Amino acid sequence: MDRLLRAGTAADAEISLLVKEEGVDAVLDALVDEVLYRASVPANPEPVHIALDVTHDAEARRVVFRCVGGERIVRAEGEAPVEICRELGMTLTHLVRRIYGRPDQRRTGDFSDVFLPARPDDLSRLPGLVVATSLASGALMNGLTIPRDDLGALCSSSGSDKWASFHWYTGHYEREFAPYRDEPVRILEIGIGGFDGDLGGGSLRMWKRYFHRGQIFGLDLFDKSALNEPRLTALVCDQSDPAALAALAREHGPFDIVIDDGSHENQHVRISFDALFPFVRPGGLYVIEDMQTAYIPRMGGTEGPSAGPDTSIGLIKRLVDDLHYHEHSPAVAPTVTQRDVVGVRAYRNIAFVEKGTNGEVGIPPWMDDAAWAALGAHTPTE
User: Does the global pTM surpass 0.85?
Assistant: First the structure.
């Protein structure tokens, strides 16, 4: 799957090599699964079958989709139906790009389209057939298009609580995640949610739709592997166990983004950050949600207007100091966070920590009060 996700922006030769090694059917099946996942529920009043004809070199395949109003589109099994209402055609290379490419990629002449390829025997059916085929086609084409829904809408439709609940996070997420949206990212979210028999997974489904080339991993204390599907994997781990977290990250990482939406116990937040931040790729983000628990004693927080050093907000305060270690401890070997944190952006109850190389040159370490005074004496002022 990693290789297929990256193929969307690769050269034609790389896609051809992937198809040669994996086979036309395996690649096509994976792409069709994604199309069915993205496609919206159609509203056509009568069933419609749409054919997708895919070619690769001398090989050709036909996939038939059954579109019934009010139901998810499915791949028709068995023999092809007698009546095909629409025929779409494209190369397998173009299908890869259409599914896992970027929105700004040029795709000129990448598919053929025949609307109602056969004349109906009963022309009185024609008006209804045109309407039904158009409605079904629109729903299917949503599956053949890179999704651009905003996070607020995806949050509501996926059952996540990151918007319009106790939290208003999606605006911050859209701002911070925009540079990653069209990349083949690996996302790990701590905490899958769910209770009273509900498996949860609303946020994981939201991320899968938002990051159309992303691999999404969720971490929970309980086995929620029933949620597993292409590009979405539920893992079992205790976020208070640093060794287990590191083992999980070695197996499934490194990650471009890690999101802590777990227990919100302040100790667990710090343990998870220390264990997983080393497994965030340079240029990636580590996100901490629900930092209001820094002020709740029963969650390991502190009372009063200033959160203590062992809280999640205390961690963010320390990272701001680490970001400026050149200014206060230039002669000491830097810690992991002093060396690798290049940005700390905090909003209400949520913070984003950016990883990179903290190598900007600061003021010379020998600059003392006398040096500053000398500098100031010869510095022009307005």
Answer: yes
